[in-house]
Structures are given as C-alpha cells and as structure tokens.
Amino acid sequence: MKLCEMTAYELSAALAERRVSAVEVVKAVFERIDAWEEELRCYITLDREGALAAAREVDAERAKGAKGTKGAKEANSRPLAGIPVAVKDNLSTRGLPTTCGSRHLQHYIPPYDATVIEKIRAAGMIVIGKTNMDEFAMGSSTETSGFYPTRNPWDTARIPGGSSGGSAAAVAAGEAVLALGSDTGGSIRQPAAFCGVVGLKPTYGLVSRYGLGAYGSSFDQVGPLARDVRDTAMLLQVLAGYDPLDSTSIHREVPDYLAALGGDVRGLVVGLPQEYFSPGIDSGVRAAVLAAVKVLEEGGAIIKEVSLPHTEYALAAFYLIAPSECSSNLARFDGIRYGYRAAGAPDTVTMFCRSRAESFGPEVKRRIMLGTYALSSGYYDAYYLKAQRVRTLVKQDFDKAFAECQVLVTPTTPTTAFRLGEKINDPLAMYMTDICTIPVNMAALPAISVPCGLVGGLPVGLQLIAPVLQEELLLRTAYYYEQAAAPLSHCPKPEPKPEPKPSSEVSK
Amino acid sequence: MGAITRRQVEHVARLARLELTEEEIDLFTTQLGDILKWVDKLQELDTTDVEPTAHTIPLRNVMRKDEVKPSWPKEEILKNASDEHNGFFRVPRILEEE
Description:
By secondary structure, chain A is an alpha/beta fold.
C-alpha cells in the first residue's frame, strides 16, 4: 500500500519507529497530487515548500529525540506529528492565502492563524494546502466555488458534495491523510458520505471557531475528516478544547477520544427516526443503512423506532436562520480593509455595492438577499422569529427521542453523489440534499458519517447522532460498526498514466 | 406571505449593498419567491407558546481583563487593503462637496 493511502494511525506508528520519515510521507502525498489533482481539483492553494520544510523539522526533532529518552515521550504526546493534513480554505492560515472559496478574497493573506491551525501546527501536523469549497461554505456540491468545482474521486463526472468537498475528496483520493472541514448544515458529513470517508461534526462549542470564516454563526463548527473512525478520533483530540477567543466555546476537560474506542454495542439503544426512512430516500441508500443497522443489532444493540415529527420543518427554518446570519456576517466584506474593491466608484456606498456584486457568486448573493429580507422591517416576526421558534421544536424532538434511545441512526444523505450540473440551477433541489444533516445543526448535536457500503459503485454514508457532548459514544458506536462491517473494500485511485510509447523505429 | 415583488427585490438589494443587474433582479424575484413559498410551510405550525431559540447551548457572557497587549503590525494589516495612503485605508469621497 502506498504511504498516501495509509491511515494516520498506521503512519504514526511507522514514523515513531522511524521506519519512514515525515518528508517521505509528504512527498508521497504530493506524488499523488501530481498524478491526480489536475483532474480532481481538491485544492485552491498548495504549499509544497512549506509542507516539506515543516516535515524536515519534524524529522529533525524526532532524530534528536531518538538519541535521548525524549523520542518515545514525543511520540506519545504528539502522535500526529508529521501527518499531512488538508485545510478547508475558510480557516485562517497565517501567510497562506485564505479565500473562503470566493473571488472576493482571492488575494487575501491572513495575518493570523485560526485556533485550530495553531493546534494542528503545535501537534506537528503538516499543512499540505487549502481545499476547495462552496463560496463562503454556502452550497452542497463545491460547485459554487468562485474558482472551479472539485470532482468526486469515485466518479469524476460527479460532485464530491459540499461545502467541504475539497477536503473530503482529498482524503478519499490520497491527496491528504486527514483534513479539516466546517459544518453549518452538513458540510462535513455530506461530502464525507459522498466521498466514502468519515466526517464528524462536533457538538456546537467543542471546537473553536476563532479564525473560521463566519457563515451561520449559531451553527458553524470545525471538525475532522479521515479515512476511518480511529483517525477521526485522533484528529478530534487535537481540535477540541476551550478557547477564550471564541465566546461560544465550551469550558470543559477534553476526554480521551482514542480510549473511547473499543468495546461492543450490547444493550445500546439505537433509535431509528421514521422520518429519515421516508420514500424520499433513495431505496439503495435506505437498504445500505438498514444493513448497517442489522450489524449493530447482531452486535447486541436494541433497535427502536422513534419519531422526530418536525423534521420536514427543520430544513425550511434553517434556510431562514442561516441566510439571516450570513447576511449579517458577510456585511464585513466592504472592499476597504481587505478583499476585492471595484474600481472607479464615485462614492463609498456605490463602492460597497459594486465590490460585493462583482466578487460574490449567485448562491452567496441569493442567501444574502434571502437573509436581508427575512430580517427586514415588517418580515422579521413572520420569518426570522418564526424560524427560531421552530428551532425550539426541532430541539425538543431530539430531547424526546434521546429519552428513549442513546444514539440515532439515519442515512447521511438521501442519495449518493449526484452529477456535476445536475442541481446547480435549482436552489431548492440543492437545499433538499441536506435534509438529513441540517436538523442536527439546529439542535447543536454531535454527529458522524461513516461509510456503509457502495450503491452503484458510489459510497453511502451512515449518520450516527448523539446527545450534546457525547462524542465518545458516537465514536465508539461508529468504530464498532466499522470493525464489524469493514464497509469499503477499496479506495479510489487515479487511472495510471499511459506509459510513454517506445519509438517503433528503434525496436525494429 | 410567499411571493416577492420585483420592487421588493430591488429594495432588499439596496439594504444588502448589492448592485444587481436587471437579469439578476428577474432571477432572484422568481427564485426568492419560490423559496419563500416553500418556507411558508412553517406557518402551519402553531408556535404561540414556543420560545425562540437563538443558541441551543446555554451561553454565559465571557469577560476578560482590560489589559494592554500588542496588536498585529500595521504594515501587515495594510498589505491586504486595496488602497492605502500614509498608513490609512483610503476610500472614495463620503461627504458631498458644498
């Protein structure tokens, strides 16, 4: 197996025993990037030089440590040192362009690191580059990116999902070992499902939002994408924790997520919300998810039907609240302190209006418009406030369900990955693709998407949802399933490049 | 509730500081109308006695000590500005001439 296809856990052991160097791992990842990136376009910015320099540093430290007793300690305290990670381009990276997938920020170079970036750097992880995404994370296919769409490594005629599509595709394709994404309404879990990788949206407040480009601030969470559940736990360990720079950060000791793995599911009460198995869910997806449920049941879990009656209203409420928050958050893009400025405007207000109009794409404009309308005088009560009341009902649904069961199991998405261009001109059809993930954000819950097999050659995601701050339970259940089912037998690989043809004259 | 008029779209665009083209105004009048019709299903729900939720996790206000700390270097901040002059951001005229 190629280095770029190994898990972080395997690479961590190989690095600790010095069977392989961080430089070799980084080079292997860039070799895969050179072979496939032109077609997939997972990244907006690559940092080859920076990554190699950071890898050399990790190797030098390890070599120094190996002479004393420090080496072993170092390996324990920084298990992910030397592991390549892809970073979604809405996370602020000092000195490295951070575009949020928008033309507006094409030339913006942040003066600071997001808290999660400080954390991954302190952990010795190697930033490979910044991944493509829907513009300001508004989209479900990575097609609203201001630059280009990303393609799904399982079928390059299809989208990778979104908005963290570049991150999910990079992990699936071996163009990174781990990745950071952000999830406002499913933007980690949905692309993870479409690309056959694991993606976790933490409890709101578990991971710092400082330095994350704000979209829907009461929903946004940063989280890990990885090839398996163990890697997901390892990366979550690095990301989680209180941050005084984020006023919504939860003050609480971070548990040992890796230690939470193992054990069985005997006696675990698993709830199946009937609304998530409606006829609107593709029959192949439903069958794959129910087969996964069977695996849990055979492991001794107790399966129980539950109901989340306000599910169909959650999506509508979300598409009022999130655009409202976005219209307020994106007011900062005025073309003055940073970002795109239209030339030749006669006055400041015209300059604002043109700078924004010329540099934002249609989906971002649409959501700003929708949010501005929902918050405007005369409509606030009917739209925004109404949606916030419905949000309460959605949360109460989950409270009631969790009185009857410990974990909820649903499909992550109603279908497998769709084709490029299939939904981009129909906003409502695109919004519907997040129907299974959005209610989770409405209630601030943690949820994970784990691959549960292929339908028509495309990955299906199994979503597990747990009560607030129950990431350990989530990871343990997901890990049990993954070990018991081994859901994906292979990973996507680039088509081998045609061999250079030997000249016929020479051989004969 | 439901449909939105072209004039309303123009008004909202002004509020949102977006200079839209005629085609965009037409498109958004249709698309926002469709979306608003769809979200109108929320009106089916009786929420008279339901409190609105802004944040699902209970929050406490975070206070910090009022300490003087170095900020980011001015040069680095100005590097991202599209127009600057003598260490300031430069903008088009704001006040009308007499």
